[in-house]
Amino acid sequence: MSDKPIIWTISGSDCSAGAGIAADLRTGHSFGVEVCTISTANTTQNSKQFYAVNATDIAILEEQAQALLEDKFPRVIKIGLIANDKQAKWLYNLLKDLKARHDILVVYDPVGQASVGGVMSTANQAFSTGFYPYIDIITPNLSEAQNITGETDTTKQAKAFKQLGISTVIIKGGHSDDDSCTDICYHATDNIGDNGEHVYCLSSDKINTRYSHGGGCSFASAVAACLAQGYLVRDAITLAKAFINQGLHANLGKMEHYGAFEQTQFPTNPAMFPRVVDNIQQRFSQLPAFKPLNLSPNQSLGIYPVIGSIEWLEKLLPLNFNIIQLRLKDKSQATIEAEIKRAVELAKDYPNTRLFINDYWQLAITHGAYGVHIGQEDLLDTDLAAINRAGLRLGISTHGCYEFLLAQQLQPSYLAVGAIFPTKTKDMTGQIQGVQTLTHLLSLKADIPVVAIGGISIERAPSVWQTGVDSIAVVTAITEASDYVEASKVLQGITGVGE
Q1: Which CATH class is domain 6-277?
Q2: 3-class DSSP assignment, residue 311
Q3: Which residues form the Pyridoxamine kinase/Phosphomethylpyrimidine kinase domain (predicted)?
Q4: What is the number of alpha carbons within 13 Å of residue 412 lying toward its C-beta?
Q5: ω before 123 within 30° of 0 (cis)?
Q6: What is the Cα–Cα distance from 289 to 122, expressed in whole angstroms?
Q7: How far apart are CA 283 and CA 476, in angstroms?
Q8: Contact 297/418 with Cβ under 8 angstroms?
Q9: Burial level of 377, CB count in 10 A (0-12/13-18/19+)?
Q10: Given 3.40.190.10, 3.20.20.70, 3.30.1330.40, 3.40.50.2000, which CATH number is that of 283-495?
Q11: Mean pLDDT throughout 394-402?
């Protein structure tokens, strides 16, 4: 059995090896998943012309599926070319059975026409849309979305897909007429609202190349591979778009020939990642960068205690930490204000310790705190301009590459990445990053310090510090230690900061 996540691709074979199964295989391998194939057709095509599609018999499709079900069960199924009505009906029955008995995800790239022209699928739309209730994510380009839904507005297209049974719609913007390529993901479209809470928008400049054959297949396969690896939808589409940008850029300027999209490696180059277009980003796009933490060259923040009371602040201030966060919960507003005021006063006697106040940005401004830490989910309700004008430093929580890129565009004083491990203090189900993802996010960072947070014990701290992160935030590693002073010394010894 494979120790890699398994995805299936149910799609056609391209004899020129640019699109379909060939693209799916190469993309899946770039993302570290095992790809199993169910071939729906052999297509005869090249860079100049589409000649024919030779559909696979239903009995052979069923043989392939049953063979894979014995020992290659998928986490995710990616669907491409469905050649005719019989195949659409077969797929309906397969997905209906699998989804009833197993927790799997299905990604559909609605291929109907070859890039060089020519109809590949004769499936009637009524048959094709019949299996839509068993699709989790659909990835049409602008023209495909319009052809299927009859709508030109992307929000209306997403709602139309929802009526057909699909909850997550990614509309790719590569066929737009402008100089940018903007992909829009409507996630859980029951909840599309004016605040854009479930709409993820990613934009990149168009890349000047004609080596794009198979790019749509590769995008959907990249999304499927990321989902199989456990990424959230917003992070899967971000990584997929970076992968597409990277492959197009590999053949930058090649316009004389329509060639195959180049599947490269897992994306780590920050220049290949898209811009996040978001209500928060648009609202505060004109803000100057927030004040830096004034670290000397080669200086790190080290250990970052997050504590919940004035008593703990009084205990830790003398221990030579470069940064401490006061996170007050379950107290009256009057008590919270009094404790924030007192905390700011106490910190004045320790000028080398940067005191951040969690959440209560208005009170932090009023009482002249050094900085404020805001969770990603609270950014829309926070007046970042007021924090910036007041001269406070800003830290922002992030969970995955989408939020990391969004927060980085706001130019805060530091970025927090978490949860690295499961934590006692907060339910982070589905958002555990791990050391590997932390390492990847560090490759994307600009000149902004990064803090790792979440479930980091004394035993786990060395592996986190070895990633090159600027700071490790801890909660219970100090507050639940039998000897908090000794625990602090051990943690500071791991980072070599504050000893």
Answers
A1: alpha beta
A2: helix
A3: 14-254
A4: 28
A5: no
A6: 54
A7: 36
A8: no
A9: exposed
A10: 3.20.20.70
A11: 97
